[in-house]
From TrEMBL, chain A:
<dbReference type="InterPro" id="IPR051120">
    <property type="entry name" value="ABC_AA/LPS_Transport"/>
</dbReference>
<keyword id="KW-0813">Transport</keyword>
<dbReference type="InterPro" id="IPR003439">
    <property type="entry name" value="ABC_transporter-like_ATP-bd"/>
</dbReference>
<dbReference type="InterPro" id="IPR003593">
    <property type="entry name" value="AAA+_ATPase"/>
</dbReference>
<keyword id="KW-0067">ATP-binding</keyword>
<protein>
    <submittedName>
        <fullName>ABC transporter ATP-binding protein</fullName>
    </submittedName>
</protein>
<dbReference type="Pfam" id="PF12399">
    <property type="entry name" value="BCA_ABC_TP_C"/>
</dbReference>
<dbReference type="InterPro" id="IPR032823">
    <property type="entry name" value="BCA_ABC_TP_C"/>
</dbReference>
<feature type="domain" description="ABC transporter">
    <location>
        <begin position="16"/>
        <end position="264"/>
    </location>
</feature>
UniProtKB/TrEMBL annotation, chain B:
<feature type="transmembrane region" description="Helical">
    <location>
        <begin position="291"/>
        <end position="313"/>
    </location>
</feature>
<keyword id="KW-1133">Transmembrane helix</keyword>
<feature type="transmembrane region" description="Helical">
    <location>
        <begin position="102"/>
        <end position="122"/>
    </location>
</feature>
<feature type="transmembrane region" description="Helical">
    <location>
        <begin position="185"/>
        <end position="203"/>
    </location>
</feature>
<protein>
    <submittedName>
        <fullName>Branched-chain amino acid ABC transporter permease</fullName>
    </submittedName>
</protein>
<feature type="transmembrane region" description="Helical">
    <location>
        <begin position="233"/>
        <end position="255"/>
    </location>
</feature>
<keyword id="KW-1003">Cell membrane</keyword>
<keyword id="KW-0472">Membrane</keyword>
<feature type="transmembrane region" description="Helical">
    <location>
        <begin position="267"/>
        <end position="284"/>
    </location>
</feature>
């Protein structure tokens, strides 16, 4: 794999900026006036108690929802209202809280499906599975095999993912997102429901993706140990509002965060 | 013991991503194709005309519906109508331009049903499941209405029926009253093999993965950058192309002539049952489904009297007819209980068991 090289955006520049974003569904306000930014090549954690609006935030970023107010700037350009596939083509990949793999396909095909946007051979060659179509298939297979090696899932290459245990499914889902060579990778609770060993593996993969390929990562996670160890900066949401933003140690000491998690004495 | 994976090493990605990675499978497929061609010279005209030609035609239509319903997960009840579009388009084309070979027109007529199919596939962006089935039902009724009400489609023929004109290939009649079942069988077989091969290439490549992605998890597919509308419309178009060609073959190379009512809603259901029983999302399942639903009743009609007569039981043709329905119905339920994923899944399990036989795993 090679890092997506974009000379305009060096490490540390703002890759994605969320400015005064509000999101409402009828009378329910999921997000209220949230602003933060994600810088190139950092690991940015979004945390908060249940129902704080973390997943809604990710859904806004990758185009499932369009904010009712405020704006999202990606790579310095204000984003128009867009469909999720347009966000994907713009370089935003994502994994889901509850695994959303293509269950009947093998691990290999799932990750190959993640390469769909990179494949361009036309319908005619696809019909004959020959010439450019086959050449492209092999080229991308090589790339996918690198991801498979990286995630250490060689042994389940041809297993339909529906039959895999949960931890491995999460890993395949990460692989599928990586296949898109994203500039921004959104991980929605990548370690939910995992045991310690699986969490350690997943943490290692996240760090390696970030360090080797310089991929910017935004992750939602409930395991505070993981969040504090992995992330460069943390943004804390509660009831759809931002209550803290900063390095893990700053956030950890913030009284409002402690109150949000532990409750306040009345 | 002959069916083993051992010793067949793949040393490059082309070999590893082959559609039939196992040498034994490739040999088996070759033998089946040779046998199918040999049947043209060994089988009698009843076997070819009443069993094999319709079996192949229905298999082709099932492949078409399977691409849409099995691979892309979009339920359609318009199959009969899309077959009709192919048949009527083929009729118009070959009577308007008789100098062009009819084989060309059979393939071209599929494009007309592809266009109509894509048009009626537009609602699929917003609705799915039963609701989409109802939307395609509109196609079924509307198109059938067109077949009845637009006399231009049958060249103002007073009977309102399509009839197969005499057409030749290399001087041999392949269509019309003078064409023998043998030549028609060979033409149908070649077309079905060619189109099955193309379908198999499609579903095993990028496009097939996009279809399955839409079926399995459409939200995630969209997040992979897969455009839902284009992918679904492509499935509708390809599916309807296959149905259209099947429809043209059905009228002109099997029946020799037909009226609008062969493309009614029953035909749509008939093909849908074949796809479900054969196996959703499987090309070989389309053949199995067509065999079970179409050939099995014929076989029973011959076999039942034969096994009853030695016991001195002589039954009337009507009783045999009833028994046929009962047995086929019971078998359909039996197979669906044993393997809800269809005969193709049973076939796959059987092959996997055979690979490690006599050991359980």
């Amino acid at each position: 794999m090679r890092a997506p090289d974009n000379p305009v955006f060096a490490k540390g520049d703002v890759l994605l900026a969320v400015e005064n974003v509000s999101l409402g569904f009828g009378g329910v306000k999921a997000l209220t006036d949230v602003s933060f930014d994600i810088r190139k090549s950092e690991i940015r954690a979004i945390i908060g108690p249940n129902g704080a609006g973390k997943t809604s935030m990710l859904n806004c970023i990758n185009g499932f929802y369009y904010p009712t107010e405020g704006r999202i700037t990606f790579k310095g350009v204000k984003r128009p209202k867009m469909r999720p596939y347009e966000a994907a083509r713009g370089g935003i990949a994502r994994t889901f809280q509850n695994v959303a793999l293509f269950k009947s396909m093998s691990t290999l095909d799932n990750i190959m499906a993640g390469r769909s946007i990179k494949m361009h051979s036309n319908f005619f060659w696809q019909l004959f599975r020959h010439g450019p179509a086959m050449k492209e298939e092999v080229e991308h297979r090589r790339f996918v095999e690198e991801i498979i090696d990286f995630l250490e899932i060689q042994h389940i290459r041809k297993t339909p993912v529906g039959r895999l245990p949960y931890g491995l499914q999460k890993r395949v889902e990460l692989g599928r997102a990586l296949a898109m060579e994203p500039e921004l990778l959104l991980l929605d609770e990548p370690m939910a429901g995992m045991n310690l060993e699986e969490k350690e593996d997943m943490s290692r993969f996240i760090l390696e993706v970030n360090q080797q390929y310089g991929t910017t990562i935004a992750l939602i996670e409930h395991d505070m140990g993981v969040v504090m160890d992995l992330s460069d900066r943390v943004v804390v949401l509660e009831y759809g509002r931002k209550i803290a933003d900063g390095t893990p140690s700053e956030v950890k000491g913030d009284q409002r965060v402690i109150d949000a998690y532990l409750g306040v004495a009345h | 013991m002959l069916y083993r994976e051992a010793g067949q090493f793949k040393t490059n990605y082309v070999a590893d991503s082959a559609i039939f990675p196992l040498r034994q499978d490739r040999i088996g497929l070759g033998l089946i194709i040779i046998a199918a061609y040999a049947l043209a010279f060994l089988g009698n005209s009843f076997l070819l005309q009443a069993v094999m030609i319709p079996f192949l035609v229905f298999s082709l239509a099932s492949i078409g519906l399977n691409i849409l319903t099995g691979y892309t997960g979009l339920l359609s009840l318009g199959t009969g109508a899309f077959m009709g579009v192919g048949a009527y388009a083929c009729y118009k084309l070959m009577t308007a331009f008789p100098e062009v070979n009819v084989i060309v027109w059979i393939f071209v007529s599929g494009f007309f049903s592809a266009a109509i199919g894509a048009l009626f596939g537009l609602p699929s962006l917003r609705i799915k499941g039963f609701y989409l089935a109802v939307a395609t039902l509109a196609a079924q009724f509307f198109l059938q209405w067109c077949f009845i009400r637009i006399p231009w489609l049958v060249n103002y023929n007073v009977s309102g029926a399509l009839d197969a004109p005499l057409r030749t290939l290399f001087g041999t009649p392949i269509m019309g009253p003078n064409a023998t079942p043998q030549t028609r069988y060979l033409v149908v077989l070649t077309i079905v093999i060619l189109l099955t091969w193309l379908a198999s290439n499609l579903v095993h490549g990028r496009i097939g993965r996009m279809w399955i992605a839409i079926r399995d998890m459409d939200l995630a597919a969209e997040l992979m950058g897969i455009r839902p509308l284009q992918t679904k419309l492509l499935a509708f178009a390809v599916s309807s192309y296959y149905c259209g060609v099947a429809g043209a073959l059905l009228v002109f190379l099997w029946y020799g002539g037909a009226e609008y009512d062969v493309f009614n809603i029953n035909q749509s259901f008939f093909i849908l049952f074949m796809v479900i029983i054969g196996g959703l999302g499987s090309l070989i399942g389309s053949f199995f489904g067509a065999a079970l639903i179409f050939i099995l009743p014929i076989v029973l009609g011959i076999v039942l009297p034969a096994i009853m007569s030695p016991f001195g039981i002589s039954v009337g043709a009507d009783v045999i007819e009833h028994l046929r329905f009962m047995i086929v119905g019971a078998l359909i339920i039996f197979f669906l209980i044993v393997e809800p994923h269809g005969l193709a899944r049973l076939w796959q399990i059987g092959k996997q068991k055979l690979l490690v036989w006599p050991f359980p795993y």
